[in-house]
Each structure stands twice: as C-alpha cells, then as structure tokens.
Amino acid sequence: LQERKRRRRALDALGVPDFAAFLGQQGVSLPLRKEAVTMLQLNVGLLCNQACTHCHVESSPRRTEAMDERLVEHILRVLAASPEVETVDITGGAPEMTPAFWPLVRGARALGKEVIDRCNLTVLFEPGMERLPDFLAEHGCRVVASLPCYSRENVDKQRGNKVFQRSIAGLQRLNGVGYGVEGSGLKLDLVYNPGGAFLPPPQDVLREAYARELDANFGIVFNELFTITNMPIKRYADHLHKAGELQAYMQLLVDSFNVSTVDHLMCRTLVSVGHDGQMYDCDFNMALDMASRGGGGEASGAPQLPRPSGTIFDISSLDELRSDAIRTGTHCFGCTAGSGST
Given this model, what pLDDT does residue 303 score? Predict the structure, then answer.
C-alpha cells in the first residue's frame, strides 16, 4: 500500500493521466470487465537464479516466497471445474525451482489443459534440473523462454554476466529434445523485451532477425517470438528514475496509446494467482499488490458482493469471475502502447 501511494505521488508529479479516466476520454466503456477466463496464470514463487533489472516482481536467489501443497490442490480442483480455461501459464521467479511447479504441470496436463512454462533458460543448468527438458517434453509443455536479444552484449547487460552463453546452451538443450523442431509438436517460443526506454519493434520483423541470427550462429530453431513492453514498476521504475528517464518513458507510453489494443488486453481473459492464493487481473497488478476486488459482476443476473478475501479459495470455478470489474493503474499504459504487449 505504501509503495502504491509513493508511486502514485511520483507519477502525479510527472503529470501522468489516470488510466481509467483516459480510457473514458477515448470513448471506451467503463469499467473494463472480465470476459470468460481462458488462461490461468500461476506465480508459484519468487525464487530465481537471476536478478534482472527489468523484473517487475523483483525475483532473486534470496526470495523464499512459494506456493504450498494445499494451494496447489485447490487450484487443480478449481481448474477441473473450469472447462473454459484452455491454458495454464506457470511463472515466477524461475518457476521450475519451486516444488509446486511439478505437480501443477502433471495435474493441469492430466486435465487436458495446455501448460506454458515461463523459462529463463539458465535454470536448466541449476542443480537438480538435469531432467527438466525431458520432463517438459514428456508432458507436452509449451516453453516460452526469455531471450531479450540475439547478441551477447545486450543480454548480459540486462540479465547478468554469461547469461547469454548459458541461454544459448539452454536453447540448444531444448532443441535437442525436440523443442522448436518442425513436426515434433513441442512449441518453443521466445520473448523479447527492450534493453532501454523505448518500445519494442514490430514483432514479425524482429522474429525474422532472431530466426536468421540464431540459426546462422548457433543452429537454434524456435516457433514464435513475442515482444513485451517493459513495465515502469518495481526494479525497472527504479532503474528509469536513477537514469533520469522515468518521465520521458511514461510520456512515451501515453503518447503511444492505441485504442485498438483495449479489446484484446490480457486482463480481459486472464486471472493471475500469486504464491499465496491471492487473485489479480494480471501479473503486473500482482507486482503492485493490486488484488482483484471481486464483485461488480453480472454473471448471475444480479450485482455480486466482494469476495471475503479475494483469494482463489473463495471460488470453486473461474467462471464465477466473469464480468468482474478489472483494476487498472498508470502502468496499464504499457499494455496499450504501440501494438500492445502480451
């Protein structure tokens, strides 16, 4: 709460408009409301073998927060009662380093859900992770791997010394078990985020460059490339502030607002659950402790009351969240800038 107040004061001083009010001025119907939930995102813990400057949840090797067995069991019960959910997106931290990761993968796949592992690639070389590529392949998981550039200098500057070298080796290991290989059925997608205070370039153009460079230099193949906009929160906001770039970056996001992105925002069809079971409209709201308020929906034909705690223990199916009002903040300009951010 104190961080939100401090951040709001700082952004007010920069003259950043209120996001909801700004949407209203663009003719968008308010409040934004949740549609049918098709993706359940699970942040299983904040432990990570890296501490990247852009990390919006401030993961590091020192973090200990983790999802417990009781919560895992309840999530799987809710998932079984939520047929409209197609995908379970497991993230962290480095999610594979948290014990909850493994039963969640097995349980979600047993329910016929697509499972995404948000992999930082270097985790493949941590002690105890020797079988991780085979485990992911055996369960048909989709791997979405972070690789902010195809050059050593840019990656190591953003993520740490020798991260690029280990990331390339990780991609080669995944290729080795079939990931990204045509006809294997094992999807390997890469994620790019800018190395500075600018918006990502067009996704299709950047994919061509990644495919060309990674194949020519390392023999690496992959499926899709996704671009994301760095969110001006937590570590990255601190980085921008220290560099004297926060005001200019926020103005860039506001000036780059694209109303056509609003109908396709991930918060419309996604629910994010933190390691403690708290529900959020997206992973960025989780980083800012902006829990879903609950209520305000019309799925039952009548106004709903706020849920007692706002945790997933309050519901038995994710369909109960349909039509809930979505919480927004100034950081939401990051998802509506340019071509949008996924």
Answer: 43
